Amino acid sequence: MTRLHSTFDPSGAEARANAQAMCEQLEEIGQQVALALAGGGPQYVDRHHARGKLTARERIQLLLDRDSPFLELASLAGYGSPYTVGGSVVAGVGVVEGVECLLVANDPTVRGGSSNPATVKKTLRMHEIALQNRLPLISLVESGGADLPSQKDIFIPGGATFRNLTRLSAAGIPTIALVFGNSTAGGAYLPGLSDHVVMIEERSKVFLAGPPLVKAATGEESDDESLGGASMHARISGLADYYALDEQDAIRIGRRIVARLNWRKASGPVTDAPKPPRFAAEDLLGIVPADLKNPFDPREVIARIVDDSDFDEFKPLYGSSLVTGWAQLHGFPVGILANARGVLFSAESQKAAQFIQLANRSNTALIFLHNTTGYMVGKEYEQGGIIKHGSMMINAVSNSTVPHISVLLGNSYGAGHYGMCGRAYEPRFLFSWPSARSSVMGAQQLADVTYSVSKASALAQGKPFDEDTAQAVRRAIQAQISAEAMPMVLSGLLYDDGIIDPRDTRDVLGIALSAIHTAPVEGTSSFGVFRM
Q1: Going by C-beta distance under 8 Å and a sequence separation of 6 or more, which residues neighbour residue 247?
Q2: pLDDT in tens, 440-454
Q3: CA 147/CA 102 separation, integer angstroms
Q4: Which of 130, 364, 488, 511 could be disulfide-bonded to 359 (CB atoms 3.0-4.6 Å)?
């Protein structure tokens, strides 16, 4: 039998302390998520409802199949910026008429749904997910266009949202726009570039310039309806493909459009009745130490997320700082790479490269579970070829064509972050636990390096060295890097697709894997030159 055994005691003092620390971090993150859920706040939500309109999340809920899960993505976009947390859009993966779709909904309670830099960055990331995984894209539109005070930060990158819609369509991936309100100026091109467009009677307003601007530019007198109302676009311009009577009718029509797409997944799970893990998901709260300097066994995590806790470990006696092996998760075959003791040595790097090649030969998606401080340094390791072996692993990750999903459990530092398929290596999805930390190196190590370099520089130049000032700088740098490595900061920058509760890891990965298999899962035998 290949079922994993567990030595983890969730009732032990260390596990309980770890779980408490994790719950405290979840509570802090939950406060920010609540801000995103609140949109523009009660005043603007009430005003929106008073106009007979649904909120973005209410629209999504009605659009999705009954009891369909919705994997919300990038809910903390814009955290740490001057803009409302969430990026003024609600986005994620859900099932509509049995079809997994990528949904992007403007939140009109946040500055009228106007786009700020976080909106653009989040929307572009959603388009990337839709294109990579061949997910039909449904845009729930109600936006006043660009947030003009921030136009210099959104005008140039925002143009890619238009480009992406055409590329999705060219790739045969359906794009659907349900227009619930204003879609003006540059925003008018969103329905203009979509395959299917639904507009609502006396609600939808789609024009390049509204009546005041038309008056100022041409002297022409006009009104909203004749200039860009649903009736005009359905009867005269032809921009509207479907004419809805109200929001509920628009959602009904949107569901019928999806039902008529004749859309099929490329592949599905190998079993429709996967067995759950043999250990409780609740245990996942206490596995990662509150102090990430302490190691933990990733097999304890794997045992609580894969089907039946069944895991065939690959090269278990070689390169033991990296656990690799095969499993199924919600019925989908996966290969897993998980850091066991933080540091990656030559053996681990070579083992990873071979394992990634094998996954490509068998067309198997890969899951990377991060807890690494990077590749090992020192004379012995440099002479042993750590650079060429680390490069071999990075080469394999870079050129692998099977889908990758990354989950940052603990540390994810330096080139180890790259070798374990960090954001720059285009994993199909990347999620973080609240315990995750990611930066060039650990905060203490970076501060120590800065201190040592400044001291050596002063001594080399024969200048006096101010120990007190240097120590103050050292402490400030450590505090800065510690803050910047936190998951909420990284999530706010869209460096992950969301911070997840450890207990939800199996289901989040299951939804992601299902979405991934909408597109063909195809490996490659073509890699760059491996330095041997």
Answers
A1: 53, 54, 59, 180, 200, 203
A2: 766 677 667 777 777
A3: 24
A4: 364
* DSSP state string for 267-334: ---S-SSPPPPSS-GGGGGGTS-SSTTS---HHHHHTTTSGGGB-EEESTTSSTTEEEEEEEETTEEE
Q: Can you give the pTM of this predicted structure?
A: 0.94
Contact 77, 41 (CB under 8 A): no
Between 65-79, 176-190, 214-228, the lowest mean confidence (pLDDT) is in: 214-228
Distance CA 76, CA 488 (A): 7
Q: What's the CA dihedral at 35, 37, 41, 47 to 10 degrees?
A: 170
180-207 in b/e burial notation, b at 16+ Cβ within 10 A? bbbbbbbbbbbbbbbbbbbbbbebbbbb
Q: Which residue bears the tokens 């024969």?
A: 462
Question: pLDDT value at position 518?
Answer: 97
Residue 255 CA to residue 176 CA, distance in Å, equals: 10
Q: For residue 252, give the amino acid letter.
A: R
Nearest-angstrom CA–CA distance, 260 and 282: 41
DSSP class of residue 461 equals T
Rounded to whole angstroms, how far apart are CA atoms 417 and 420? 5
Cα three-residue angle 243-168-187, rounded to 5 degrees: 50
Q: What is the per-residue pLDDT across 384-442, written as a single tens digit (0 to 9) for each?
A: 999 999 999 999 999 999 999 999 999 999 999 999 999 999 999 999 999 999 987 66
> Which 3 state secondary structure label does DSSP give 392?
helix
